[in-house]
């Protein structure tokens, strides 16, 4: 249990730190930190329940992407200012390092295993972002169509 609390706290710090790096100011740094913590908590819950790497990354990123779209307008910031720092805890940097390291050292079997897991994680993240962007694009265009009566 304490390991989960530490991981969640580190996710907050990581997301808040990247927010500062991206010149996010004020309360948005805290909001992005909370979003990063939420992304990691959802990842842990889904992975613990289903045990699927792809679905845990997909569901976690999907929720965070929806949250980013919903928060962006009231906070008057671009969606990417909210989305990128919130998904930073999910980025599989360690897997990328292990894949490249094993390729360089000639251990192709280990590299294949790391690469397969890396592709699953990145596919989950990318498909969730594309799905949410498409859904919100449809919603905004329907609202615009109804508003202007085109």
Features:
150 residues, single chain, 6 helices, mainly alpha, 0% strand, globular
Q: What does this molecule look like?
A:
- The structure is a single chain.
- This protein is mainly α.
- 87% of the residues lie in helices and 0% in strands.
- It has six helices and no strands.
- It is globular, with a radius of gyration of 17 Å.
- The mean pLDDT is 93.
Secondary structure layout:
Blueprint: H1 2-21, H2 27-50, H3 53-75, H4 79-87, H5 93-105, H6 108-148
Task: Write a brief caption for the model.
With 150 residues, the chain is mainly alpha-helical.
In helices, the fraction of residues equals over 70%
Strand residue percentage: under 5%
What is the average of the pLDDT values?
93
Q: Which spans have pLDDT < 50 for at least 5 consecutive residues?
A: none
What general outline do the C-alpha atoms trace? globular
Report the C-alpha radius of gyration, rounded.
Answer: 17 Å
| CA-CA gap between termini | 55 Å
């Amino acid at each position: 249990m304490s390991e989960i609390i530490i991981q969640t706290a580190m996710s907050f710090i990581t997301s808040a730190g990247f927010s500062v790096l991206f010149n996010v100011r004020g309360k948005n740094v805290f909001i992005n930190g909370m979003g990063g913590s939420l992304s990691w908590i959802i990842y842990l819950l889904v992975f613990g329940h289903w045990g699927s790497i792809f679905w845990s990354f997909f569901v976690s990123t999907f929720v965070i992407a929806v949250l980013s779209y919903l928060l962006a307008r009231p906070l008057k910031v671009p969606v990417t200012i909210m989305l990128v720092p919130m998904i930073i805890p999910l980025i599989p940097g360690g897997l990328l390092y292990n894949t490249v390291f094993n390729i360089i050292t000639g251990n192709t079997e280990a590299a294949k295993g790391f690469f397969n897991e890396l592709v699953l994680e990145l596919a989950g993240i990318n498909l969730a972002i594309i799905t949410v962007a498409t859904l919100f694009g449809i919603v905004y265009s329907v609202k615009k169509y109804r508003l202007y009566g085109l």
